[in-house]
Write a structure and sequence with these properties.
Layout (H helix, E strand, L loop, with lengths): L1 H15 L12 E6 L5 H9 L16 E7 L4 E3 L2 E3 L1 E5 L2 E6 L2 H16 L10 E7 L6 E4 L15 H13 L4 E8 L8 H9 L6 E6 L8 H7 L10 E3 L5 H5 L4 H15 L9 H41 L6 H20 L5 E5 L2 E5 L1 H18 L10 H9 L9 H12 L3 H27 L3 H35 L11 H18 L3 H16 L6 H6 L13 H52 L3 H7 L4 H29 L17
Parallel strand pairs: 1-8, 1-9, 2-7, 9-10, 10-11
Antiparallel strand pairs: 2-8, 3-4, 5-6, 5-7, 12-13
């Protein structure tokens, strides 16, 4: 039994002596919970067989006290004398205490150092290691006593603060709760049991302890309490007797008190006497802890493995500390440029916080969103006929003194050129948005790949952003020329442009049908003749002139609805031509952004960075100077990996039942206090 408890102590030692918290591993431990003046500190002293805890009224325990008891096989030489008991503190490991009163003073002094002299509390634990030939190998955590109201100079919310602190320990699944209740108070009102039930409703990891049993009223009710039927905790209930003030004044030893305790239970509760008392409590705690350790060993082992992988990954992320500055600079710049290219091509992404939540970021995906929103959707939302609401008037105003039979191409060119200006702002806005997206990507990738080197990260981001501005202006210049080219010549012979003669002929045909419906056969016949003529001559560039000159052959040409027909035809042709140019523009715009702002940047990036940054030895050393937090992270991860490796070895030893030789340093005789 002792070897398992010693192994658990050493496992806890691996973490506590390294200064690394083991909260993520959740090692099994016994947590002592009780209200103020319930006698929980006296229970600890009885188990440890030493008077070493501070006493007083109100809040005495203001910080968690992790008491690690280590059973020694024999006395050790300390301060020139053979000692069976001595102690050390984690915050002062080189000092060895053999006088228990000095341990009390040190607990008070260290508490005041952290909490001050007022009645405030702290969650920073005091670690006390007690060596003795008379104690079991157990680790117990003494917590501040629960209270309902503040008294005197205590903080007004002291009750909430203490309960929050206690819950942080008892809520851990691998903690054994030692719930202490005074025997002279109705156990139904026990604060410790109430709190234990909230985190352990089945009572599977709670052991109830009733103190001051000599102050209980004798009778059936006392029996029911001590035999555990009223409590219902699966680990049971154990009654003990504390040293009262009279015993302290008479300096009655703990050994004598335990003898009196055994006599009391034999005489007052003979049927259950063998399950009462401090000695039985100590043995039960050992058995419970060993059983619990075996039960949770696989889980602890798994958590240690997860922590090892976590810190291994963290160590890989920061990498090894650079020894050759020039080589380190080349490696880092190559890493950055490769990441930029791969992120744009969709082959590299990394987690980043977007809008308060973590998302996977890809430069290519973000740029595609801009293309979709600005180059495609925004362009497609532009109305080709925006501003052409009163088209007949515009045709008349732009047509001069010579009216046309169908449409005037000069007027058409003027109106289309005006409409094409609608594409200017969205084009430049799309370029600006693309620049912003690329700038953000550069900065994020620089932070992700070069964040360990703040000076280099800043320089690289600045160089890239300057280049991006230059490439953005180049893209705008190119697109400005492209838009000017489109407005400089309206190509009505474009292969995708609608056949305007066919449109005109169809309009005449529709007009004839409308007239026929009005039963004006003569007028309908004339309109149908015009339709047939236009149909025959579709595609003939002289068709309009022939039709307009039909009056020379003595034929009458109808002008009914001419203005409306001309406006409708003009409207359709403007929309069609604008749509063709807009489609071409979207394609050219995306390709131009990719060429000037993306490909030119990435293709020249490595050369530009090396040319600017690979200079003097002093400058290079300054650029690859590692951030302090990265150095600390590497040291912390390395230290944690070493600690976890030792912990895994101990877990393995415990699992196979191997006896673990102690390698603990014995106290220096010159350091005795």
């Amino acid at each position: 039994m002792d070897r398992f408890l010693a192994a658990l102590n050493r496992l806890q030692d691996v973490f506590t002596t390294s200064g690394i918290p083991c909260s993520d591993v959740d090692l099994p431990q016994i947590v002592v919970v009780g209200s103020q003046s319930s006698g929980k500190s006296s229970v600890l002293e009885s188990i440890a067989k030493q008077n070493f805890l501070p006493r007083g009224n109100g809040i005495v325990t203001r910080r968690p006290l992790v008491l690690q008891m280590i059973k020694e096989d024999k006395e050790q030489e300390v301060g020139g004398e053979n000692r069976h008991t001595w102690a050390t503190f984690l915050h002062s490991p080189d000092r060895v205490f053999t006088d228990m009163s000095q341990i009390q003073d040190e607990i008070i002094a260290d508490t005041e150092r952290i909490c001050g002299k007022d009645k405030g509390i702290s969650d920073k634990a005091i670690h006390l290691k007690l060596h003795s030939t008379k104690i079991p190998s157990l680790t117990l955590v003494d917590l501040p006593g629960l209270t309902k109201i503040s008294v005197g100079d205590q903080p007004k919310d002291i009750d909430k603060k203490i309960e929050k602190l206690v819950r942080s320990y008892v809520s851990k699944p691998n903690s054994i709760i030692l719930a202490v209740s005074p025997g002279n108070v109705d156990i139904a009102n026990s604060d410790s049991l109430r709190l234990a039930r909230t985190v352990d409703p089945t009572g599977s990891r709670t052991l109830a302890v009733v103190t001051k049993c000599d102050l209980m009223e004798r009778g059936k009710e006392a029996y029911e309490v001590l035999e555990g039927s009223k409590v219902g905790m699966k680990l049971g209930l154990i009654g003990v007797i504390n040293r009262n003030n009279d015993m302290l004044k008479q300096d009655i030893s703990l050994e004598r008190v335990q003898e009196m305790e055994e006599t009391f239970f034999r005489e007052e509760f003979p049927d259950i006497a063998d399950r009462m008392g401090t000695k039985y409590l100590s043995n039960q705690l050992c058995d419970i802890l060993i059983s619990h350790l075996r039960k949770c060993l696989p889980e602890v082992s798994e958590k240690i493995g997860l922590q090892r992988e976590k810190h291994k990954t963290a160590l890989e992320e920061v990498g090894e500390q650079a020894t050759d500055p020039r080589q380190a600079l080349v490696t880092l710049l190559n890493k950055f440029t490769d990441s930029i290219k791969q992120s744009i091509d969709g082959k590299y992404s990394f987690p980043t916080k977007q809008g308060g939540k973590e998302e996977c970021y890809s430069a290519g995906a973000e740029l595609f969103k801009v293309f979709k929103a600005e180059c495609i959707d925004r362009m497609s939302d532009i109305r080709p006929d925006k501003g052409l609401d009163n088209l007949p008037d515009q045709i008349e105003n732009n047509g001069g003194i010579q009216p046309s039979l169908f449409i005037d191409e000069g007027v058409f060119n003027t109106l289309v050129t005006k409409q094409l200006h609608l594409l200017d702002y969205p084009t430049y806005h799309a370029i600006d948005r693309s620049h912003s997206s690329l700038k953000k990507s550069v900065e994020l990738i620089a932070k992700n790949t070069l964040g360990a080197y703040p000076a280099l990260e800043g320089e690289v981001a600045e160089i890239c952003c300057r280049n991006l501005v230059d490439q953005m202006e180049l893209t705008k210049t190119f697109m400005k020329q492209y838009l000017a080219n489109e407005r400089s010549y309206i190509n009505t012979n474009h292969p995708d442009f609608i056949d305007r003669f066919e449109v005109a002929a169809n309009m005449f045909h529709n007009s004839a049908n409308v007239i026929r419906n009005r039963r004006d056969e003569e007028l309908a016949k004339k309109q149908e003749n015009q339709y047939q003529y236009m149909k025959v001559t579709t595609g003939n560039n002289t068709a309009f002139s022939k039709l307009m000159n039909r009056s020379d052959r003595g034929e009458k040409v109808t002008t009914e609805g001419r203005s409306d027909n001309e406006a409708e035809l003009m409207h359709k042709l403007i929309i069609q031509y604008f749509t063709i140019i807009r489609g071409q523009l979207i394609d050219v715009l995306i390709k131009s952004i990719m060429r000037f702002m993306v490909r030119d940047l990435t293709d020249k990036l490595s050369h530009n960075l090396m040319k600017t940054l690979y200079t003097t030895e002093g400058r290079i050393m300054a650029l690859v100077q590692e951030a302090d937090h990265v150095t600390r992270k590497r040291q912390s991860s390395s230290k944690m990996l070493s600690v976890l490796a030792k912990a895994e070895n101990l877990i393995s030893d415990i699992a196979v039942g191997r006896v673990i030789p102690t390698t603990e340093k014995k106290p220096d005789i010159d350091k005795e206090e």
